[in-house]
């Protein structure tokens, strides 16, 4: 987005400053800046900059770049409370930084924090950070964001605080079902003067063998992390839509293919160059993850894993191989890393904190000169507004998506070419009486944009059927059919047809319909499925054993799996499991135990009517403190719902018998399964959530009788 080529260096207020030498470049340089109040005007502003350069005198410099020092730090604190000063980490440089961005992981490892996102550790570590900031400057807290144990804190020198704007924070959980916050990321985006910056603190999947799961976590974070803009008419901003991205955290990439003693010997010799060759970050396939990111040279020993309170490598039974789990990377121009180091004197955790001091070029605009230039261009714009009508050509007008499946993205590319005489703006617009420009299973990215004369843009048309759209498609009430209207500002509309065929899935299909199926759902004609949905009668139900026989068998096999229901599965394995259930082949479910468990949870979540039906939800809340009344409510369920509830709770009790292996307990299972089995027809408050868990506990813990 930024270009500072052919620019002139000069000195201003003891700072290095970049001056843009030509007005034509200035206008191009600002084509995407949001401080131009009208997106339409901003784009035309660029148009005229290439045609009427003479409008601006060559002495009109208004864009400069100031260098500011950013402290970026990451610390996995292993659930510990602060036991020592953080000054050796936060204040090691002689000069105070202008901004602090500090990320923490595993702030609190308790079950209460995991399930209710509430922890006293937040205030304890906040106080430790505040006391550890550089003593030679005064700082203002700009933003704090936390997801369970992942926390990001942003401070700025008080004299810079007024230049920070458009601050937004978002979180993405990548734990089980893609929402539990034991793994994932938190992020803060902000504008500093005229530069857009995004800071991401992530905690990716653990264990040396979970290499691909870490890559999947990264992709999920990049896809799902979206920031709202101040103008609600503007599209959300993704992480990569910023001038500068700072990515820090416990990335959990390990040193592979070497035994623990080999690694320790290389560390003792300070032969980090050899170790780097076995670092999983350096083994990442090109374009797989962290494309375009830069990391400074690592000249410090691995930061994981130590015995807590010491500098001794892990002496536990597991004897973890040392690794550089804790990393800091960046993406963007005008970033220079001054230092990159660990801080061995801090011994609170089994990780060592890491810091990077960076000098970052921040764009600053002289508003008076900018306004003068802007007004002159707008006056000339008015003269030529009606001279030309924009037009484009489309690579295709009809798109067909074949064999669309539940939770499996399909993408086609639409290329828009500006074949007119003038630049143009385009946008997909709403059709009459429709809430959005497209159906909920379809997106166009980008949905609006600008095309210079003779330029082209690729637009991704993505079809993705999720939990909110699967039911209507499974039942045949809706089809993969839509028409997009591409509108040109001051031009005509173009129509793009999107069609496809959807393969019905047991995910998102009602329990009573599944119980009526005599063969796999994808082998049933759609008309037959429609009839089953509309003509449901309880007397027609076959035994639910057929529905759950395969899942029950798998569940029994996996009860010994460590961290079952708490670690997410792999996307490709879920797709294999879904296909197996929908087609009946192969005979046994593929994939890891974690992927099978997550598929079960997702199946329950997307049921159109939950296992405990909406009509009995309030009675469940009212009887949550009484075991006999709770059992009575379950006896009132329709037969297929009651059978599924009994199967599932029997399976959960089997899991609890093997808690020594799988690390599950009643509270964990109640917290995971209560919102799936007893879904509220409205938004739940915390009190209701606790009551649903109390209700389910009656069927998991015999002592509650």
From TrEMBL:
Keywords, alphabetical: Cytoplasmic vesicle, Endosome, Hydrolase, Lipid metabolism, Membrane
Where does the record say this protein resides? Cytoplasmic vesicle, Phagosome membrane; Early endosome membrane
| BP-aspect Gene Ontology terms | phosphatidylinositol dephosphorylation; signal transduction
GO cellular component, as recorded:
cytosol; early endosome membrane; phagocytic vesicle membrane
What molecular functions are annotated in GO for this chain?
A: inositol-1,4,5-trisphosphate 5-phosphatase activity; phosphatidylinositol-4,5-bisphosphate 5-phosphatase activity
Tell me its EC number(s), please: 3.1.3.36
Q: Which parts of the sequence belong to the Rho-GAP domain?
A: 524-705
The text of the family note is: Belongs to the inositol 1,4,5-trisphosphate 5-phosphatase type II family.
Task: Tell me which PANTHER family the record gives.
Answer: INOSITOL 5-PHOSPHATASE, TYPE II INOSITOL 1,4,5-TRISPHOSPHATE 5-PHOSPHATASE
What is the designated name of this protein? Answer: phosphoinositide 5-phosphatase
Species for this entry: Scleropages formosus
Q: Which gene encodes it?
A: INPP5B
């Amino acid at each position: 987005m930024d270009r500072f080529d052919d620019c002139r260096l000069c000195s201003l207020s003891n700072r290095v400053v970049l001056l843009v030498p030509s007005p034509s470049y200035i206008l191009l340089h600002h084509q995407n800046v949001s401080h131009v109040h009208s997106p339409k005007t901003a784009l035309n502003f660029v148009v005229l900059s290439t045609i009427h350069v003479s409008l601006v005198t060559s002495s009109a410099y208004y864009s400069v770049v100031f260098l500011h020092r950013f402290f970026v730090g990451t610390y996995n604190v292993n659930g510990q409370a602060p036991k020592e000063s953080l000054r050796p980490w936060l204040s090691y440089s002689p000069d105070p930084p202008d901004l602090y961005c500090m990320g923490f992981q595993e702030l609190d490892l308790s079950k209460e924090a995991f399930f209710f996102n509430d922890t006293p550790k937040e205030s304890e570590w906040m106080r430790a950070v505040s006391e550890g900031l550089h003593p030679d400057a005064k700082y203002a807290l700009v933003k704090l964001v936390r997801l369970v144990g992942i926390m990001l804190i942003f401070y700025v020198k008080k004299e810079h605080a007024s230049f920070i704007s458009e601050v937004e924070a978002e979180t993405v959980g990548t734990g089980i079902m893609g929402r539990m916050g034991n793994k994932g990321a938190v992020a803060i985006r902000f504008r500093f003067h005229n530069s857009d910056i995004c800071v991401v603190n992530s905690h990716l999947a653990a264990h040396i063998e979970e290499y691909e799961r870490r890559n999947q976590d990264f992709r999920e974070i990049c896809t799902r992390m979206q920031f709202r803009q101040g103008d609600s008419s503007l599209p959300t901003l993704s992480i990569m839509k910023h001038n500068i991205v700072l990515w820090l955290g416990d990335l959990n990439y390990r040193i592979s293919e070497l035994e623990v003693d080999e690694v320790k010997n290389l560390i003792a010799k300070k032969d980090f160059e050899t170790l780097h060759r076995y670092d999983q970050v350096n083994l990442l396939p090109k374009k797989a993850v962290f494309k375009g990111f830069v990391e400074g040279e690592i000249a410090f020993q691995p930061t994981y894993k130590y015995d807590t309170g010491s500098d001794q490598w892990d002496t536990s039974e597991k004897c973890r191989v040392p690794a550089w789990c804790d990393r800091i990377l960046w993406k963007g121009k005008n970033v220079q890393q001054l230092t990159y180091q660990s801080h061995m004197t801090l011994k609170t955790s089994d990780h060592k904190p890491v810091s990077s001091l960076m000098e970052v070029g921040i764009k600053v605009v002289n508003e008076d000169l900018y306004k003068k230039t802007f007004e002159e261009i707008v006056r000339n714009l008015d003269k030529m507004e009606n001279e030309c009508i924009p037009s484009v050509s489309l690579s295709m007008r009809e798109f067909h998506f074949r064999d669309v499946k539940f939770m499996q993205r399909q993408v086609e590319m639409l290329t828009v070419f500006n074949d007119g005489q003038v630049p143009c703006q385009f946008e997909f617009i709403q059709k009459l009486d429709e809430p959005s420009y497209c159906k909920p299973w379809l997106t166009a990215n980008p949905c609006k944009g600008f095309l210079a004369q003779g330029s082209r843009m690729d637009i991704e048309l993505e079809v993705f059927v999720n939990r909110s759209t699967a039911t209507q498609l499974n039942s045949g009430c809706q089809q993969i059919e839509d028409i997009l209207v591409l509108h040109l500002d001051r031009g005509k509309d173009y129509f793009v047809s999107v069609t496809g065929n959807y393969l019905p899935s047991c995910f998102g299909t009602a329990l009573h319909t599944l119980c009526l199926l005599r063969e796999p759902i994808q082998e049933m004609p759609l008309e037959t499925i429609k009839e089953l949905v509309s003509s449901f009668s309880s007397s027609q139900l076959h035994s639910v054993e057929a529905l759950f026989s395969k899942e029950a068998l798998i569940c029994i096999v996996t009860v010994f799996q460590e961290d079952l229901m708490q670690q997410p599965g792999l996307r490709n394995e879920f797709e294999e499991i879904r296909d197996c259930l929908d087609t009946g082949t192969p005979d046994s479910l593929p994939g890891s135990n974690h992927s099978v468990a997550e598929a079960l949870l997702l199946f329950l979540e997307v049921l159109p009517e939950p296992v405990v039906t909406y009509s009995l939800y309030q009675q469940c809340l009212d009887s949550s403190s009484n075991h006999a009344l709770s059992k009575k409510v379950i006896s009132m369920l329709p037969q297929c719902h009651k059978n599924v509830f009994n199967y599932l709770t029997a399976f959960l009790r089997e899991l609890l018998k093997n808690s020594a292996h799988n690390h599950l307990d009643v509270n964990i299972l109640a917290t995971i399964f209560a919102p799936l089995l007893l879904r509220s027809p409205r938004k739940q408050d915390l009190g209701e959530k606790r009551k649903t868990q109390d209700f389910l506990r009656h069927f998991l813990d015999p002592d509650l009788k």
